[in-house]
User: Fold GcrA cell cycle regulator from Sphingobium fluviale.
Amino acid sequence: MSWTDERIDQLKGMWEKGMTASQIADELGGVSRNAVIGKAHRLGLQSRPSPVKANDAPRKKPVTRKPDTQGAEPRAAAPAPAAAPSSPTRAEADTPPFDTQDESTQPLDVSAPAPRPQQRIVSIGPGGFMRQGPGDQQAPIPPAPPRRLVPAKPSPEIADKTSLLDLTEKICKWPMGHPGEPDFHFCGEKVNPGFPYCVEHCGRAYQAQLPRGTRRPPPPMPFGGPRVR
DNA sequence: CCCTGATTCGC
DNA sequence: GCGAATCAGG
Assistant:
């Protein structure tokens, strides 16, 4: 399988939706998990919460790969000049998608949030409510960061539709639309007893449920793919 | 063990 | 550019 534009598009979409590389590979079919990861990196889609990334240790381990077929090692031994052992080598692994401030201001000082001595925080908005008793002497939590708050938008458009909070064991959880879109909601029908979906969507969900590794040509799954609606 | 993503490097 | 092999954390 080759990476057609469409497949790349699907990969991007799924990757950004948080699907794991295995799921994506399985969904696309014809590619391995490694292929997905490799492609994602080549595409520049980088670093989502990864299990192994927190460490800063220089991983200089000449792994012996391809033990066979190569009589001599053609690679010239790279004289890795161990430059700065203690300095933070790489840029921070996964910087949140917030605006990066000018790095020239402070080299590295995240420890001090500079709390106002006199200011007393009594509460923060609905998103991060916090209290402080009369005897409290210090603000244990830094003031509400100037984060860009995403307003919870209960769009009237979905007022009568089934939202995430409306889901129970009895109603169909089949997603309608795409997450993040204003009209994203769930089916909401009465479920097929014993299944998370209604009868109709059970048909969609389980029809092409073939054993792992089996190619699935183009099943009308609710995620990924071009947005045809 | 399973899973995950990251990285390397022969092709 | 691709992806198997490998690494490494959970």
Q: What stands out?
A: Residues 59 and 126 of chain A are 44 Å apart (CA to CA). The radius of gyration of chain A is 25 Å.
